[in-house]
Amino acid sequence: MELIQALQNFIQGLHLPILLIVGLLTLLAFYTGRIMKYVRLPSIIGFMIMGALLGPSVLNLLSEDVQGQLSFITNIALGFVALSIGLELNIDSLKKQGWGIIFIILSESFMAFIVVTIGIFLLTGDLPMALIFGAVAPASAPAGTVAVIQEYKARGSLTKALYAVVGFDDGLGIIIFGFAAAFAKSILVADMGGPTAGFWAMMAEPFKEVVLSLAIGTVIALLFSLLIRKVKSGRDVFIVTFSTVFIATGIAQIFHFSLILTNMMIGIVAVNTQPNQVYQSISEELKEVMPLIFVLFFGLAGSHLHLSALPALGLIGIVYFICRSTGLMSGAWLGAVAGKSEEKIRKYLGLGILSQAGVAIGLALIVKDEFTHYGAWGVKIGTAVITTITVTSIFFEILGPITTKIALRKAGEIPEE
């Protein structure tokens, strides 16, 4: 510990410029990712390991202050991930999978909510706390799934299904969270002897966020479609696409919309309205920039992993981890069976949707901030949720990409190594 503290003090004393820090992160994370290939693990595991080493837990090169200055990179990266997902959601292609995708999205999200809620309630006997943990459970981390798909150049029906599921389940997750949080708050208010007025208003908020995110994404997408048709070279396509993602992400931040849904909608409109050569041009340019974005995004994500928090996992964390994994996998299987999806989607899709990070931690922070106004019970819930979700996200972010790779390999959509 003394050696680590000495190294941290030495690094902080250097007062390194932010660009030098970004350069070191990019280079070191890149080569650590290369090392992961020798042990047959996805590169993003290496990116996160190096981020954790450079973060506050070890060297503190990526201190919390530096993380704050670089937070815009995370938002931009999520914007590009969402755009990539949208570009894979061709309506004609999705129609071939029938109702299966819709059944899967509904089933895996609600099963995760139900199983986690029941598990935490049986453990604690605290219904509001159980509802909140259940509400956070459906939230996924699409960046991890997309990174693995693109790294291994996966192609096939399972890959298409994964794009659709991780793209849309965050929207459904936000709605579920809004309902559950409103119900939990009404219980706490009643316990405090206050009125439960405003319950329906609270439940309307998540609907508004999702609808407005998709609406603004559609408007920006239509403008993007007009602009992109006028450009010819790949370089110009890249500039217009890059600028559009920046604008969409910025607008989403101003109005507190979902930047994932907003940018995903741009991709959906583009792939379903543009001539094939325009779509191909956008996709090719994205393929060139996504590796760099993934290195930066997952390197920074790793720096947020506070390794000192691992001992705080506790019994609630273990139950949450097991129940969420069980709910997602069983829900995906049930949805695929109900929708008569092909066998490999039934068997393997659940393994590809376990990642959880940014959105879930964001929801946990909302709980921590808002529930402090509901007395000691609310404070207890907020503390338990933020601690547990932060720690379990470390495990889900490491496990998720590995299980996604396993699923794609068993489905025959990436080659054997």
Quick description:
79% of the residues lie in helices and 0% in strands.
What percent strand? under 5%
Give the radius of gyration: 21 Å
Helix-strand string: HHHHHHHHHHHHHHHHHH
Query: How many helical elements?
Result: 18
Global morphology? globular
The amount of helix comes to over 70%
Biggest sheet architecture: none
- Could you report the average pLDDT, rounded to the nearest whole number? 83
How many separate domains? 1
* Record field, number of beta strands: 0
Using brief descriptors, characterize the structure shown.
417 residues; mainly alpha; Na+/H+ antiporter like fold; 18 helices; 0% strand; globular
